[in-house]
Amino acid sequence: MTTSTQAEKARRLAVHILLAVGALLMIMPFLWMISTSFKSFADSMSVPPKWLPVEWHPDNYLRVIQTIDFGTYYLNTVIVTVGRTGGQLILCSLAAYAFASLRFPFKNAIFLALLAVLMVPSQVVMIPSFVIMREFNWLDTFYVLIVPGIFSAFGTFLLRQFFMTLPKDLEEAAKIDGCSYFRIYWNIYLPLSKAALVSLAIFTILASWNDLLWPLIMTSSEEMRVLSIGISSFQGQHSTDYPLLMAGALMATLPIIILFIFLQRYFIEGIAMNGIKG
Amino acid sequence: MSSPITVTTKPPETTAKRKVGKLAFHEAMWGYIFILPVVLGLGLFYMAPSAASLFLSFTSWDGLTAPQFIGLDNFANLMKDDKFTGSMLNTMLYTIGTVPLSVALATVLAVLLNQKIKGMVFYRTFYFIPVITMPIAVGMVWKWLYNSEFGLINHVLGVMNLPQPNWLFDEKFALFSIVLVSVWSSIGYNAVILLSGLQGISGSYYEAASLDGAGTLYKFFRITLPLLTPSLFFVLVMSFINSFQVFDLIFIMMDQQTTMLESTRTVVYSIWEDGFKYFNMGYASAQAFILFVVILIITMVQMYIQKRWVHYQ
Contact, A159 vs A92, CB < 8 A? Predict the structure, then answer.
């Protein structure tokens, strides 16, 4: 008994060391961002680069807020992100349920056609997309920032794969009881898929939060600008103000990190579902 | 089902068939209703502009004046274009270098991050940090690590008396150097997807295996891995799709150099050059179309062979 607990302790220590070394490698650029955000401009350009600022400039953060309209950009980004994420979670899960569980003609062909959307480089569809959005009179509105973003082949594929691992016996029982397909989706599939829905939410939030090219091309007025555009304005054609860029990026990223810390508890709770299966 | 009246009036199989037919119709109808919003939205906002781009691949277009229809000229020229065939080869090398390594490491990481040990919240967050770190910061740090004069990597190699290559500026090492950064930045992303896949695996399998005296490795290969295959399939398909379209990483790591190395020009980088630097949108669209066909074939092959290794319930 004691040897097995000792072996267990040794194993845990090994896991800790392995994870810690890897984690250090992963966060190095992020630490660099933090350090650069406190540097003076001259300091940030020094060759070879220094890990710590020579003199500390916390006022960089204040200067970011004074230079760009941070409040408006933040609010716009939150509105766009909430709209896109909410829409995707509903529409993708609905389609994913149909693809995973229902039988209908041409199912696999339609599914492959949806995936094909992911295989066209965004660089060549930008101009045709711009023309379509102009025809819709959606340019420079929240419509252009939100509506196209609520349809996702990635999200449908991700949830379909997860739905296909769910046990079928519950669904069969519900069918015999006369449950409609929508109720099976709503009362069985969704509650059992929290972990997958959370990971889709994380990726959608992240993609929407950092999306630069689409809002840059589709909006023009100051009131419609989002965070990613505001931060990239510190990146000049010839010289980049790295300290302000990093300070702005950190202020923009902080809510995402906090959200990730909160949301990941669902990666544990998901295990609870297995009780139902037995 | 088999009431005496039906048996006397009609053969029972026909009624049963009709009932099944009605149920199947009902099921199919709801199937179409559920996928309709996504199909319509993707059709309008993604497939329509893609179709427009396909049309442009048969034209010569500078982005300003009206496109000129030139038939298959763009495709004929591409076949003779060493820059394009070279970029296709680089893209494939990049994909082969990145995808297997990243997915394998992400699988191991996801299993490690799925344990109940202290500080797991922090580990998970740290491994996800590369995904949320600003790409410019990622580029700056890696360029510094790779720097031939004062970079950390060559400093360590120098101490060990090993050769110190000029990583990002040498045709022999540049693509390999970018593959390393790519693996580094995609492990966390893939691990989060696999981590959510691990939540679908019932603990009862492990309990049963433990009672039989199964070891850690046995559990990993006989329980975890097979039940994780639907998520692994997703990660693999998406990794191939994304790797074939790599652009940002090339742009960040290479673009501030005076000339683009031949060994690191990928297809989408070439598309970007032709479309937005030389304003030859037709030629760029033709390259995108060929790339699309290549990715589509690879995805279809993966869809076909999944029956052999992906375990669905």
Answer: yes
